[in-house]
Specification:
about 450 residues, mainly alpha, 2 domains, two-stranded antiparallel ribbon, globular, disordered N terminus
Length: about 450
C-alpha cells in the first residue's frame, strides 16, 4: 500500500501551477528551488576544487555534502516539507511519552540493525566489493557504521513519539526476529525491498564519486578552449559529476522529516532484472558483455578527427544531451533513487518528457558511438553493433515499462501521465510520428 502522496497535501494549500493556454500541470512533489540550491552549493565547492586542485576521494565526498546541505536547508526552511501529511508525522499532537513507544522503538531498532547486518553480510561475501572502485565504498561504510548505529537510537526514540503510525515494515521485521507474535509479512517484504535498493545502489554510487570528481578536477583547463572535442568531453564529465553527487545524496538521505523516505520499492521481479543488468556486477553492456556494442568501433572523436567544425557541432549536441540527463537528476533534489517511489515529479525536464534521462542517455549513445560504422569496414560488425545497441535501448524501454507498472498505482502519477499525454512535447511528438493522438498512459517517472 503506498503512503499518502505529498501532492494530496499540497493541493489543499496551493493551487496547481498554471501553464498559459493549457490545463493545470499537476504540481511536483519537489520544488525547483531544492535542486537549484543544491546546484549552487555544489558549484561553490567545484570552484574551490578547481582553484586549489583538490582531486582526492574525500574532496569528492565533500562535493556531495556541499550539494546536500543547501537542499536540506531549502526543503525545511522554504518548502517546509517536514509539515507535509505524507511524512506521517503529526506535529500538531504533543509527542507521546517515550514509555508508550519504547517497545515499538526497540523492535524497530532490532529490525533495522538486523537489516544492516544482512547488507554487511552481502558486502562481505561479494568479491566485487573488495576490489577496484568498490574498495572506497567499503572503507566509507566501515567508517560510517559506528556513527549511524549510535545515531539510530536517539533518532528512533524521537521519531516514533511523533509518527501517526510507527508500526511500519521495520517494526514488523523486528517483531518477527524477536518472536513477538504474528508479523505482517507483506510489510516485512516491502521493508527488505527498500533496503535492498539502498544497499545495492548506495555502494555503487559511493564507489564512483571519487572517479567522477577527479575527472572533473584534473582537466587541463587552459588547453580546452582550443580543442572542441576535449572541451565537450570535460563538460560532459562535469555533467556526470553533478549527476553522481545528486544521486548519491538521494540514496543517503531517505528520512521522513525530509519527506524523502521511500514510499514503496518496485515489487516486480522484471523491474529488478531490467535495472540490475545496467549496473555492476550484473552489467551486460561492458566490454566483452553480451550487450557490448563497441566491437571494432570508435567514439565520435575518432571518426571526425581533423574536422573541428563537425567535432564542435557533435560535441555541443552531446553536451546538451548530458545536460538534460543531469538536469533530470537535479530535479529529484533529495529523492533520487532507482526502483522506488518517493513522490511524483512534474517539473524541469519532466514537464517535457516522462523519462528524460533514459531518452537523453540513449540518444547520446547512438550519436557518440555511431555503431553503424566499423573500423574494420565489415558490414557484419556494423550490423551486430547496431542491433546490439538497439537491444540496449530495448532494455531501457523494458525498465520504463516495469517502472510505470509500479508507479501506476498512485493516482497522482496517473494524473501526471494523462496530462503529459495531452500536453507533453515529447509524447505528443511520438504520437505525431505514429500518426495518431497520444493516449494517456502511466509511463516511466522513477529515478533513472
Amino acid at each position: 500500500m503506498l503512503a499518502p502522496s505529498p501532492l494530496a497535501y499540497q493541493r489543499r494549500r496551493i493551487p496547481a501551477r498554471m501553464d498559459v493556454g493549457k490545463e493545470p500541470r499537476p504540481r511536483s512533489a519537489v520544488s525547483s528551488g531544492v535542486g537549484y540550491a543544491g546546484l549552487a552549493g555544489l558549484a561553490l565547492w567545484a570552484y574551490a576544487g578547481l582553484r586549489w586542485h583538490m582531486d582526492g576521494p574525500v574532496a569528492g565526498l565533500v562535493a556531495c555534502v556541499a550539494c546536500a546541505i543547501p537542499m536540506v536547508a531549502w526543503s525545511l526552511a522554504v518548502d517546509k516539507v517536514h509539515r507535509r501529511a505524507s511524512t506521517g508525522i503529526d506535529w500538531q499532537r504533543p509527542p507521546l511519552p517515550w514509555r508508550e513507544t519504547l517497545d515499538i522503538s526497540l523492535a524497530k531498532l532490532a529490525g533495522l540493525w538486523a537489516t544492516w547486518g544482512i547488507i554487511a553480510f552481502v558486502y562481505a561475501i561479494g568479491r566485487w566489493y573488495w576490489s577496484g572502485q568498490y574498495m572506497f565504498a567499503m572503507q566509507f561504510f566501515a567508517m560510517l557504521l559506528p556513527m549511524i548505529v549510535i545515531g539510530s537510537v536517539p533518532y528512533m526514540l524521537w521519531i516514533d513519539r511523533r509518527l501517526e503510525e510507527p508500526r511500519d515494515g521495520c517494526y514488523a521485521f523486528g517483531q518477527y526476529l524477536l518472536g513477538q507474535g504474528a508479523s505482517d509479512r507483506a510489510a516485512i517484504a516491502a521493508h527488505l525491498r527498500s533496503w535492498a535498493v539502498k544497499g545495492f545502489f548506495t555502494a555503487f554510487m559511493i564507489s564512483i564519486v571519487p572517479g567522477n570528481w577527479r575527472e572533473f578536477v584534473d582537466a587541463p583547463l587552459g588547453a580546452l578552449l582550443g580543442d572542441p572535442a576535449r572541451l565537450a568531453q570535460w563538460l560532459i564529465a562535469t555533467m556526470f559529476m553533478v549527476d553522481v553527487a545528486f544521486a548519491t545524496v538521494g540514496y543517503l538521505l531517505t528520512f521522513r522529516p525530509l519527506d524523502s523516505h521511500i514510499r514503496s520499492a518496485n515489487p516486480y521481479a522484471a523491474g529488478w532484472a531490467a535495472a540490475l543488468m545496467c549496473y555492476p556486477p550484473f552489467i551486460m553492456m561492458n566490454a566483452g558483455g553480451p550487450l557490448d556494442y563497441h566491437q571494432n568501433t570508435q567514439e565520435w572523436t575518432g571518426w571526425f578527427a581533423g574536422h573541428p567544425t563537425i567535432l564542435a557541432a557533435i560535441g555541443a549536441v552531446l553536451v546538451i544531451l548530458t545536460g538534460i540527463y543531469a538536469w533530470a537528476t537535479v530535479s529529484f533534489g533529495l529523492r533520487f533513487s532507482n526502483l522506488t517511489h518517493r513522490g511524483i515529479l512534474t517539473h524541469g525536464p519532466y514537464a517535457w518528457s516522462k523519462h528524460p534521462a533514459y531518452l537523453s542517455k540513449n540518444i547520446f549513445w547512438w550519436i557518440g558511438t555511431m555503431p553503424f560504422l566499423a573500423t574494420t569496414g565489415a558490414l557484419t560488425d556494423a550490423v551486430r553493433n547496431t542491433v546490439t545497441l538497439g537491444m540496449v535501448s530495448g532494455v531501457y524501454y523494458w525498465r520504463a515499462r516495469t517502472e510505470e507498472r509500479h508507479l501506476a498505482s498512485d493516482p497522482d502519477y496517473v494524473a501526471y501521465a494523462a496530462w503529459m499525454a495531452r500536453h507533453g512535447p515529447v509524447p505528443r511528438f511520438f504520437a505525431w510520428l505514429r500518426g495518431g493522438a497520444s493516449k494517456p498512459a502511466a509511463t516511466l517517472q522513477a529515478a533513472e
